[in-house]
Structures are given as structure tokens and as C-alpha cells.
């Protein structure tokens, strides 16, 4: 099925259209052998609150972005290579149901589908793509993933020292464990090449762990505290109106 789709004109046109919708803000998506498996809007748990995001599942990558104009224009494209992706069902959070976690070395987050059926379909298709890729390449799945950030709303105080957050005592996220901590408890920086070029903020607990685990062998990655700009908002996005009344669509009708 995937092989047949890979060579089909319909598949080529679909991918080309997605590329067009991202315009210059995105990377070229049309590469030989690539197949669009499915697409749809999922609610992504972002730092401040849940937001709708357009997702495209291709046979080797998961692409997502903000919806500027529904089905016409997207921006802020992110690409996750499925070889390194793992997923896991997630419990409901109030009104948010049918969720699962997506883990990867560069980004990890929680998404929610509109219905239980869509969740099942998404998860089955993602897992199938990951499996097929690993089988084909003979690789074992990467265990290195970055943490899912705990949403700001779940922490009114630093998760290490318990000092309440205020306008002055701002929230920060540890890039190792995803906890919400104050500046005093996260003065250290550590290099995570998969997440960013610049050394990233880590909490004191994680710093101790990282330091002891790489002690003699790899002191290179230790980075002393610096004054690099840490906007700490890398996951934040513009607020954009969207309508997500349409269902997810999958092009490979076969169920496993
Ligand atoms: Zn603290
Ligand atoms: Zn930490």
C-alpha cells in the first residue's frame, strides 16, 4: 500500500500542497519515497494552555505547525523524525480527552484528538510508521528523549524550593526533567545538542545528576553559568483563530 502510494500522483500532489501551505516558512517536504499517511488538527498542550495545531503524518516524519488559515496556510513548521519518536497514551486532563504523549529527542509534548476513534487511528498509524522504519533500517529506537514540559498552570510555586511564582519570580522549565522551577534553582546550563545549539537551562537536581553521570568521561558538556539570553519561551506561539471542525484523514485505509 505504502509503495503504491509513494508513486501515486495523488500522494505527490498532497505533499506538494502541504509544502505550499507552509510556504517559505517550511522545509521542502516532497522527497522520493515519502508518503502522506494522514493529517488532522490535534490539540497540543503548550506551555500556557492547549492550542490547536495541524499535524501531518508522513511515513518517515511527523510535521506540525500553526494554522494561519485552515487548510490553506500554516507556519512555525516543526519536523520530528519518526525513527526517534515514541508515543504513549495519556490520561484525560479535565475536558481534554483522547490524549497521548509524543516523545522525541528534540521535542516532547502531549496532544489530544477530538474522538477516541481518532486517537486510536493516529496512534496506530504513528506506531506502524515507526515500526516500518525501524524494521527497514535495522536500527533500535533511540532512548534519548527530551522531557514533556509541565504546563505553567500546574505549578504555582517552584517545584524544588516551593517559593511561589510572581511577576518577578518567573517560571522556568528545566530542559532535562520538564519541571517548572524558579531562576535560583536553575542557574546552571547544560548542552543538549538534540534540543538546541545553545546550552540549556537545567534545574539544580538535574545538574547534579548530569554532572555525576558524566563526571570524568565527558566534562566537555559541562557549561558554566552564563548570561545567554534565555527567553524560556521556545514553545510559545502566536495566538491564531482556527476552526477545527474537520476530522482527521488517513490515506492508508488498512487497519492493523
Ligand atoms: Zn526554586
Ligand atoms: Zn530538572
TrEMBL record:
Q: Does the UniProt entry include the keyword Zinc-finger?
A: yes
Gene3D superfamilies cross-referenced by the UniProt entry: Pleckstrin-homology domain (PH domain)/Phosphotyrosine-binding domain (PTB), Zinc/RING finger domain, C3HC4 (zinc finger)
PANTHER family, sorted:
PLECKSTRIN HOMOLOGY DOMAIN-CONTAINING FAMILY F MEMBER 1 HOMOLOG, PLECKSTRIN HOMOLOGY DOMAIN-CONTAINING FAMILY F MEMBER 2-RELATED
Q: Name one GO cellular component term.
A: early endosome
- In terms of domain of life, where is this protein from? Eukaryota
Residue ranges of region Disordered? Answer: 214-256
| Protein name per the record | PLEKHF2
- What biological processes does GO assign it? endosome organization; endosome to lysosome transport
SUPFAM superfamilies per record: FYVE/PHD zinc finger, PH domain-like
Q: Where is the composition biased (Polar residues)?
A: 214-226
Q: Where is the composition biased (Acidic residues)?
A: 227-249
Q: Which one Pfam family would you cite for this protein?
A: PH
Which keywords does this Swiss-Prot/TrEMBL entry list?
Answer: Metal-binding, Zinc, Zinc-finger
> Which residue ranges does the record assign to the PH domain?
35-131
FYVE-type domain sequence ranges: 152-211
GO terms for MF: phosphatidylinositol binding; zinc ion binding
Task: Give the originating organism.
Answer: Bugula neritina (Brown bryozoan)
